[in-house]
Amino acid sequence: MKSENNRMRIGEGRISGAISIFLGVSSLASILCFKFPEQFTTPEFREVYTAAMAENLILGGIISTFLFALLSILLAKNKKYAVVGVVLGALSVLLGGMTVEGRAVEKTNWSLGLDWLILDLLVMVLIFVPIELVFPKNKLQSKFHPEWKTDLIYFGISHLAIQLFGVLTKKPAVAFFGWMNLDGVQQWVNDLPFVIELFIALVVTDLFQYAAHRIFHSHYFLWRFHSIHHSTENMDWLAGSRTHFIDIFFTRSMSYLPLYILGFSTLTFNVYIVFIAIHAVFIHANTRLNFGLLKYVITTPQYHHWHHCKEPEHYGNNFAVVFPFIDKLFGTYYLPGNEWPEGTGLVDASFPKGFMKQFTYPFIKNPFKNDLLPEEKSGR
Ligand SMILES: [Zn+2]
Ligand SMILES: [Zn+2]
């Protein structure tokens, strides 16, 4: 599957076919959001977009589904992608996608974040597919590598369950710190200029994230869960999503803790979420794009790919998600010039394939032949 001819190239009609299918599926999912907004859209997110914006987006989506299918028909020898695209587009039209209209939404306790999933996926595809196509790190790696569907399921579920994660990750903060009187600190944070408040939020959350990340690498039972994230051999923009529920819950609870208790504004919180969502995807991407000297200030794909390095001698480096200086501070920094790791993934590990099996496996079994922690294997 890693063969060179599997990678899509511009001009052979497979990219346009894949885009057509992707837009067709997105249009159908968007229609579902319009028909059942109580069940499939999130109240917080509904405040960000308007019904008119979403209506235009679906209309544009359906028209583009047909246009890309047409392009694929013209370019490709194999027309199957285009046919699927046309069928999805036609279904969207039949289900009333061209004339959907927003309506008042009733209050519900629970809903799935399908709107968040569609829009985030759309934005990520728009940003990262062209980057990986034009500036790839591994030229031989195809987007459709053997485990891309598993990674997509991880991406989908973590987005659909956004409300659940929001509620769950807030619980520890309220339980442990709710009783404290932090009015003074909260007032101080509140009075800060926005840019400084945001910068402090990023540094503090990264420190907490760093601690959580190291805990996952240094406790044998927890490492079983986090090692799922390290199991990816094909690093790309979707690969970062492969994270076990326990890992997401614990790491997010820890990283968000300062945001929940120190009085950061809603604006800071939201900008932080958007920045982290894009940046976390970026550092896993299959791209050689670097930021020149800026790579010493903010983490890049090269930096995080070293964290995923397959060679045990480099295990246990680069835990920080945003700021390399945090690793410098704690002696876990590794960025050798312009060198990249030869491979990513884990040696001696046998993980089952697929989301459900990977979900239950760490609870009951050890994916490794021995119970050495990654840092113990590094020999440092
Ligand atoms: Zn890690
Ligand atoms: Zn990672």
Automatic annotation (TrEMBL):
It comes from the Bacteria. Residues 199-332 form the Fatty acid hydroxylase domain. InterPro entries: Fatty_acid_hydroxylase, Sterol_Desaturase_Related. Pfam families: FA_hydroxylase. GO terms for molecular function: iron ion binding; oxidoreductase activity. GO terms for biological process: lipid biosynthetic process. Keywords: Membrane, Transmembrane, Transmembrane helix. Its main location: membrane. It is found in: Membrane. This is Lathosterol oxidase. It comes from Cellulophaga tyrosinoxydans.
